């Protein structure tokens, strides 16, 4: 499984063309070919420990850096030892002063933008809830896929009833027992959160074809039958989450005029 941690000394977070000039970066993980220079520090836990205890030559770079930072790849967190990797990175961040004078140098690079938005509003399994692994292999009787195609659908239990809501009809739709056609991003107003956590607004360009509906309309119709208070609960989840970018007041106004918040 991929293991990638980049540890850098930067004056500011910069696009790649300026990374080549201003940033000294150390890479822990599998061999790759970035477009900017990196110092390869090794692979796995031993390389992390060397940075943490100061025995790595790159430790001196971090100690001298005005604005040190870590970019932790999501693949490292998905490993069986992901919790230990995360803990080690937080210890490195604390040792080398990644939080100072308004500077926050700890970054996680996610593979899916929707995951960042979900984390922003605290959309996580609650008490007794299941993660992806827990829902596979018959872990649930009903599985509702909201445009979810980026996992191995062969892991879904044979007896699990699958509802697919979306528009691109990929692997999730092929496994579904029921398909609810949703609108594409060009067919609805919506708020989108990118992998940097920046909120972007999209506007409807064309109307959804056939029986397709905007996602919020499908979910609201379901909630009216099964749980009339579901929308209020979602707003409460967002209100309690740490949302420096995605403000619940903006969501309320946007949804109120017929838009959909995509998280």
What does this molecule look like?
By secondary structure, this protein is of the alpha/beta class. It has two domains: 4-109, no CATH class; 113-261, Rossmann fold, CATH 3.40.50.740. Helix content is 35%, strand content 21%. The chain is built from eleven helices and 13 strands. Strands 3-2-1-4-7 form a five-stranded mixed β-sheet, with helices on both faces. Strands 8-9-10 form a three-stranded parallel β-sheet. Strand 11 and strand 12 form a beta hairpin. Helix 2 (44-53) packs parallel to helix 5 (82-95). It is elongated and about 60 Å long. The two termini are 26 Å apart. Residues 9-15 and 259-263 have low confidence and may be disordered.
How is this fold's topology laid out?
Blueprint: E1 4-9, H1 16-22, E2 24-29, E3 38-42, H2 44-53, H3 58-64, E4 68-73, H4 74-77, H5 82-95, E5 99-100, E6 103-104, E7 106-109, H6 113-120, H7 132-135, E8 142-146, E9 161-166, H8 171-175, E10 178-181, E11 190-193, E12 199-202, H9 215-226, H10 230-240, H11 248-256, E13 260-261
Biggest sheet details: 5 strands, mixed
Helical stretch tally: 11
Number of strands: 13
Task: Report the structural category.
Answer: alpha/beta
> How many structural domains in the coordinates?
2
Indicate the CATH class of the largest domain: Alpha Beta
- Helicity range of the residues? 25-40%
Order of neighbouring strands in the sheet with most strands: 3-2-1-4-7
Task: Write the H/E string, N to C.
Answer: EHEEHHEHHEEEHHEEHEEEHHHE
CATH architecture identity of the largest domain: 3-Layer(aba) Sandwich
Low-confidence stretches: 9-15, 259-263
Query: What is the approximate shape?
Result: elongated
Strand content: 15-25%
Q: Give the C-alpha Rg.
A: 21 Å
Provide the residue-averaged pLDDT: 79
CATH topology of the largest domain: Rossmann fold
Distance between the termini: 26 Å
């Amino acid at each position: 499984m991929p293991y990638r941690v980049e540890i850098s000394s930067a004056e500011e977070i910069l696009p790649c063309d300026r990374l080549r000039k201003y940033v000294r970066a150390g890479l822990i993980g599998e061999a790759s070919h970035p477009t900017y220079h990196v110092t390869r520090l090794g692979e796995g836990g031993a390389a992390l420990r060397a940075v943490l205890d100061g025995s790595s030559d790159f430790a001196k770079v971090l100690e001298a850096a005005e604005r040190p930072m870590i970019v932790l790849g999501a693949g490292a967190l998905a490993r069986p030892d992901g919790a230990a990797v995360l803990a080690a990175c937080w210890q490195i961040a604390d040792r080398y002063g990644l939080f100072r004078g308004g500077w926050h140098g700890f970054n996680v690079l996610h593979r899916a933008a929707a995951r960042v938005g979900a984390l922003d509003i605290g959309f996580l399994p609650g008490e007794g809830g299941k993660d992806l692994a827990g829902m596979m292999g018959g872990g649930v009787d009903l599985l509702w896929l909201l445009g979810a195609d980026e996992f191995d659908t062969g892991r879904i239990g044979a007896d699990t009833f699958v509802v697919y809501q979306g528009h691109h009809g990929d692997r999730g739709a092929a496994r579904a027992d029921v398909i609810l056609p949703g609108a594409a991003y060009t067919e609805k107003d919506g708020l989108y959160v990118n992998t940097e956590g920046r909120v972007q607004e999209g506007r409807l360009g064309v109307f959804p074809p056939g029986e397709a509906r905007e996602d919020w309309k499908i979910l609201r119709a379901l909630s009216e039958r099964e749980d009339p208070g579901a929308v209020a609960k979602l707003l409460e989840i967002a209100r309690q989450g740490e949302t420096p970018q995605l403000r619940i007041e903006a969501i309320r106004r946007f949804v109120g005029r017929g838009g959909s918040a995509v998280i």
